[in-house]
Amino acid sequence: MSESSPTAAETRRIAEVARDRVRFEEEALALSDQVYRVARRLASSREEAEDLVQDTYARAFRAWQQYQSGTNLRAWLLRILTNLNIDRGRRAQRTPDVQPLEEGDYFLYNRLESTLAEENPDEEKVIERLSQNAVVEALAEVPHDFRDVIVLVDIGEFSYADAAQILDIPVGTVMSRLHRGRRILKQHLAERAVAA
Amino acid sequence: MGCGCDDCEQMMQPYLDGMLSDEEVDEARDHLERCPWCERRYRFEERLRHFVRIATDEPMPASLREKLHELRSTPPAA
């Protein structure tokens, strides 16, 4: 029996798999900055985001053969990450059924403009009423279901279709949550306007 | 104040998201050309989205990058 020595074809096959695996790992690692950027805003702290990203990559590297080459790897990684996030019981904080009545889409601009003496100010001047911290805090206050969509689409720059797949919800739900979520975010931002 | 047209406010997100039909886009553009009041608010919204993206960006810690690299099946040659 000469079973112990693999045939040339087997050896080639093993080498090919190893090469594919290395390529997968390199491609996944090249996306880590983008994955972290999204994770940081989905998670409530930096530590949590770091744990999530690390667990995501550990799982992705184990399950690499489940990834279909040529499909969106960043979305695939984020799908793992959001599932891990849910597994960790983040959903214990359910979004309350009753949401505050939303203001319209012009609300934030109107509020910020009213703090300026100038009439018809340039939009740059209006934006300056907001600090970077205000944005981070206001976003953290947006209920999860809405925040997830804002983070994926507006920060992660995922398409609606990718966001829908990552969160396992219909595209129409992505759009409606995005529109409502942005309004909620603007309301929180209005509360944090810097005095002129 | 304003142009008194609630539709413009309702159309802003779909317009900026590229979700309107060609006809609706033409209609919106036509309005924005004639209404600086709405146009400022549309420009502000665009600028705000950009600001949200920049303001929330936090670089990945170097220690995490190292940990991720260590998870590879074949660690880099020394």
The helix-strand sequence of chain A is HHHHHHHHHH
Number of helical stretches of at least 4 residues of chain B: 4
> What is the averaged pLDDT score of chain A?
90
Low-confidence stretches of chain B: none
In angstroms, what separates the terminal alpha carbons of chain B? 68 Å
Give the overall average pLDDT of chain B. 89
H-E string of chain B: HHHH
Q: State Rg of chain B.
A: 22 Å
Distance between the termini of chain A: 86 Å
Give the helix proportion of chain B (percent range). Answer: 55-70%
pLDDT under 50 segments of chain A (min length 5)? Answer: none
Label the structural class of chain B. mainly alpha
Beta-strand residue fraction of chain A: under 5%
Specify the helix fraction band of chain A.
55-70%
> Outline of chain B, from the CA principal axes?
elongated
Shape of chain A: elongated
Number of E-state strands of chain B: 0
Q: Which structural class do the helices and strands of chain A define?
A: mainly alpha
Biggest sheet of chain B: strands, sense, closure? none
What does this structure look like?
The complex is a heterodimer of chains A (196) and B (78). By secondary structure, chain A is mainly alpha-helical. Chain A is 66% helix and 0% strand. In chain A, helix 4 packs parallel to helix 9. The longest helix of chain A has 23 residues, at 8-30. The termini of chain A are far apart. The model of chain A has no long low-confidence stretch (mean pLDDT 90). With 78 residues, chain B is an all-alpha fold. Chain B is built from four helices and no strands. The model of chain B has no long low-confidence stretch (mean pLDDT 89). Classes of the chains: A mainly alpha (196), B mainly alpha (78). The A-B interface holds A 18, 21-22, 25, 29, 32-33, 36-37, 40-41, 46, 50, 53-54, 57-58, 61, 104-106, 108-109, 120, 123-124, 126-127, 130, 132, 135-136, 139, 150, 154-155, 157, 175, 178-179, 182, 185-186 and B 2, 6, 9-10, 12-13, 17, 19, 36, 40-41, 43-45, 47-49, 51-61, 64-65, 67-69, 71-74.
